[in-house]
Write a structure and sequence with these properties.
The chain is mostly helical. It has helices at about 10-40, 55-80, 85-115, 125-155, 165-190. It has a single domain (about 55-190), classed as Cytochrome c oxidase, subunit III, four-helix bundle (Four Helix Bundle (Hemerythrin (Met), subunit A)), CATH 1.20.120.80.
Length: about 190
């Protein structure tokens, strides 16, 4: 398929999707680097091998998976010209995304209550990695929430139809990526922690 062929709209659509995938690929490389460094650092003498993984991180995993389901339902509703139902599902997704962040901070509180800190005299390299990776993921979830707000706004303006779903598709793709990334990170920490 020749990517230079098609209408201007088709070319712009392909370009936007390609830019999103380039961004996702760069995020994957960053998180792969951090998790690789985590594995390499685990051979250090000061590495913490046994700690209680915060239950809040597991609860937040359920919440973010549910948010992906609600995003799918929103996309399906919008595609079938049920815009108000789509908006409702998008709002549920937004609330679940916000809940995810609050639950993540509860996970940080659980770590702190166990005496683990990001920096300082009572910190250690293991916890610094966990705090850093989880915090960077939260920053990207915030970016996902901003994109979700744009999708909600555009849907309220009836911008999306079954023939014009690009904004919803891009937002959903990014959101599902964040979901899968967090599932990977939880499994990684659970089995390599």
């Amino acid at each position: 398929m020749d990517l230079t062929q098609g209408t201007n709209r088709e070319k712009k659509t392909r370009a936007k999707k390609m830019m999103l995938w380039f961004g996702i690929a760069s995020l994957l490389m960053g998180f792969a680097g951090w998790t690789s460094a985590y594995i390499v650092s685990s051979s250090r003498a000061d590495w913490l091998n046994e700690f209680e993984f915060p239950s809040a991180f597991l609860y937040s995993t359920v919440v973010i998976i549910l948010s992906s389901v609600t995003y799918i339902l929103a996309k399906k509703a919008i595609k079938t010209n049920k815009s108000s139902a789509g908006t409702q599902w998008l709002l549920v997704t937004l609330l679940l995304g916000i809940a995810f962040i609050f639950i993540q901070f509860s996970g940080f509180s659980q770590l702190i209550s166990q005496g683990y800190y990001f920096t300082g005299p009572t910190s250690n390299i293991t916890m610094s990695f966990i705090f850093l990776i989880a915090a960077v993921h939260i920053v990207h979830v915030i970016a996902g929430l901003i994109s979700l707000l744009v999708v909600i706004y555009n849907n309220l303006r009836n911008k999306y139809t079954d023939k014009n779903m690009l904004g919803v598709e891009l937002g959903a793709t990014f959101w599902h990526f964040l979901d899968l990334l967090w599932v990977y990170l939880v499994l990684f920490f659970y089995y390599f922690g």
